[in-house]
Amino acid sequence: MTSAMVLCRFLHFTVVLMLVGAWVFRPLLLGRAATTLDQPLTPISRWLAALALVSGVCWLLLITASMAGDWAAAFDGPTLRLVMGNTFFGQVWRWHLLLNGLLLVLLLSPWHARLLPRLVLGGLLLATLAPVGHGAMLDGLSGQLLILNQIVHLVCVGIWLGGLMLLVMVLRQPPAHPIGAILQRFSAVGYALVAGLVLTGLINVRVLTGQLWPTPLWSGFALILLIKVALVLVMLGLALFNRLRIKDCEQRMGALKTSVILEWLLGIGAVAAVSLLGTMPPMVAS
Q1: Which end of the chain is more exposed for a tag (fewer CB within 10 A), N or C?
Q2: 1: confidence class by pLDDT, cuts 50, 70, 90
Q3: DSSP reduced 3-state for 11
Q4: Within 10 Å of residue 9's Cβ, how many Cβ atoms?
Q5: What gap in Å lies between CA 71 and CA 33, rounded to an integer?
């Protein structure tokens, strides 16, 4: 059951982060020419929203089965209603699924091209991921600040992952825009994203563990967190390498595509590590 939970969390987090992040990064990456990505991005957005809804429902069923200690409870109406009405997760998740459903309806409607409703629904969808897991560990003002910090962290992750997905799409199409200018815009936004990721990540670790870094280092929560940090550091290394080679990017398009795809996959790997972390105790210091 735990393995299924980790897989479901990973899938749901990944698709929601990329979905919302791509919409935010789209005008930042291409400026006024952003509409050139609308045709390929629209069907991808619909599939991501549908996959998010399916994985979100599966997550609810898995949580219900886990709380009841019985797989059959996942499909028992009274038990599902009890979880959705009487648990913090259920109360957050029913709103999350409602937002996901409304977003999917919007994307399938004639108004799918309107950016503002997409961003509003997508932003609320992303925000309702923050209280799930360790974000709900604390009560009162401390808990609210932790959830706010987690929202900022998720926004930074989502914009980065979504931006990388868009960059992969741009690089796979016939050259229609100056690649150097696109990379410069990506890097400019990337500096702010990395700063936000590092700061909010350090705050999360300090609040959840009571330490600057959890111990013991080579086991449990600390080990998975170390793997996540290592993946992010490799991503940063690739991004810095591409930033330093912007001037000759047109001459090394093959290497650039490979590097960006690898960076994107490493980001997805980091989300997988986070999905596993969410099922593990963070070892809060006494």
Answers
A1: C
A2: low
A3: helix
A4: 24
A5: 50
In a domain, 286, yes or no: no
Contact 160, 190 (CB under 8 A): yes
Rounded to the nearest integer, the mean pLDDT of the chain is 83
Tally of domains within the chain: 1
Measure Cα distances from 174 to 169, 171, 223, 227, 264 in Å: 10, 8, 42, 36, 20
Buried/exposed 267-276: b ≥16 CB within 10 Å, e otherwise:
bbbbbbbbbb
Rounded Cα–Cα distance for residues 211 and 197 (Å): 18
**Type of residue at 100:** N
Say how far apart CA 24 and CA 119 lie, in whole Å: 7
On the question of pLDDT at 136 being above 80, the answer is no
The model's pTM: 0.87
Q: Is residue 284 part of a domain?
A: no
Q: Is residue 282 domain-resident?
A: no
Is the separation of the CB atoms in 172 and 275 below 8 Å?
Answer: no
Task: Give, as one character, the DSSP assignment of residue 178.
Answer: -
Which domain, by its residues, includes 43?
A: 2-277
The pair of three-digit structure tokens given for residue 239, joined into one six-digit string: 């991004």
For residues 282 and 146, the answer to whether their CB atoms sit within 8 Å is: no
Angstrom distances, CA of residue 259 to CA of 147, 171, 269: 33, 11, 15
